[in-house]
Amino acid sequence: MKRALIFFVALIFIGCHSNSTKQIVANNNVTIYPDKIKQTVWGIGFEIQSDAIGSGNTGLPEDKHAVPHDLTKQERERFATEMLKGFRYCRIAGGLYWRGLDAESKYLQPRWPEQLEELREMIDVAGVEGVSLEYWSPAPFWKANNSYLGKGGADKYNTLRCFGPDFGTDPIYKGDTLRFLNDFAEACVTDLQTLKEAGIKPLKWGLQNEPMVSNNQQYSTCKYFSKEDYVKAYVAAAKAIRNYDPSILLISDTENKYPGKIGPFMSDPEVASLVDAYVVHTVGWDSESVKSVGKRINDSLPYKPWFQNEYEYLTGGATPERCLNTVQHIMNSFQIGENPSWYWIHALKPFKNSEASGYSLGFWKSLEENHQKATSNAYHRWVGGPEIVNLPDKFKTMEFLNVQRKTNKAPGLNFSFIINRPATAYMLVEQKGEYVPDGWELTDIKLDSENSNDLVYKKTLKEGDQRIAEHNGEANGFYGAPHAIFLESEFKDFKVEVGINSPIKIRSEALKLEQAAANLKPGHWIYNDFNWNAVGSFVKRMPWDCKVIDLVEDSYNKDARILTFVKPNGKHTIVVSNRTSEEYTFKINTGIANAKWKGYRYSPFERGENTMGVEIGEQKGAILCPSLPSLSWEFWEEE
């Protein structure tokens, strides 16, 4: 036992010799087994916002703020060739970002005549193989509420028509669930046919994005209140799709963490035969979560490939630390989770959307909107609303947030935000309808704006999640201004983040984006570096159908990861990352004698020309010893 320990310690401190003969002390020793092939990685996917959504995921606007529609012809081509080339799959959100309807509201159609043509052109130019169609909501005809939108988690009508409370007296189906499901299944096939006839190849299909969700008038949802309901609908639709096109991959069921709807029924041979892959959501989770998610799936369900198809940061924006977490989530998904695919949620988001920074690989500026130059002087009661005048100087030193709102003839929305330190909050409330915020102290401060003024309430907030109720106060058809808040903290590292599905604008973050947008022409787009550098590095350097290779680490470090794969051309690649606070060195026995390796480095701040990384030199031989600075990752490719 003692001799083995001495041998292990000796291994850790055996130095690598670089080309300059300088000895490098390794933090981790890794042995790769080139003959032990694991899963094939089909390729990486993205989602496209091909129709408009309200800021903070609130509402389905009638405008056409969508990509590629909202880009100039030249920028559409640059978007497809520069960003999207290398992706294999495009995720289509049925009933949300593809939500046009036929006259009976039975089938999905383009919401404007060119919508599918624009998508097809984007896909063709980018070389994307095809799409994964998954419903956020089926067409309203098939819903008990005849609507894309629900009224909260308890809304029993925001579900398939046959599972709604009044199906027994339904004027068409009169309680005949089997007949309904057969018709619904054929409608799902028709939606796939519509894509195919438009020149868009369907590769994957899913019944329902997050079937456990029904939100309050925010974005399209359809809730399945029981596992039995979900499985009945899934089996009916999946059978019809399998008969229509057996090559389409059937996925289930994109809930958080674990396929809880389909899982209990996988012992049924009929159900199991219609599930080609388990798909889950692990949005923005730490890269280590891949291990626990994979273990639960593998330990409790019959074997099927599994992967996640929606990764983003629901709260707050992109950061260097999150950049490295995304890198390592991809690496762990392929090396440890043995996933065959991995998806980022949005290629581009508009500057105006409060969730854009955490959700997107890039931002675009609309052709259809009027954009003002960024200014550090104006404070508005709501975004684009009346300007607050005669603001006391003490408020100008504070962080400021306000909500997205079109008019004061409708109630203000509820919203949430997150603070990392305690703060004193000053909330603006226009007194209409005797609205008094619970737990807040009224001050003697009044802030004026055009034709009205706001009372100011004060409250000490602890760090963490903060939730503000909607404002329903009303007088003479006008509702009190939705809440705007000033935040004061004694901590220098104080930071505010956008909450989940929250239509707010944080002043300091918005100014950065507005300043970038001010220099951008309408119809043009730019990268969201911290997200794109992470995802783009794998899109550009990991071809479709690579095969992951087995390896053993002597010293597992959750902040310094390794992935190794062989490309279809037979050449090997080793990816290493470092999100520790110091330099980190790997000593890697590649198992390939006389190999020649070339290295390419990435960081949150640097991706190299055409997102191909920055060349950092070569190493030769079976032993590879890369040393990485903090917050960086490298691809070492066999030549």
From TrEMBL:
PROSITE patterns: PROKAR_LIPOPROTEIN. The keyword Signal applies. InterPro entries: GH. The keyword Nucleotide-binding does not apply. It comes from the Bacteria. Residues 1-18 form the signal peptide. Keywords: Signal. This is O-glycosyl hydrolase. The lineage of its organism: Bacteria, Pseudomonadati, Bacteroidota, Flavobacteriia, Flavobacteriales.
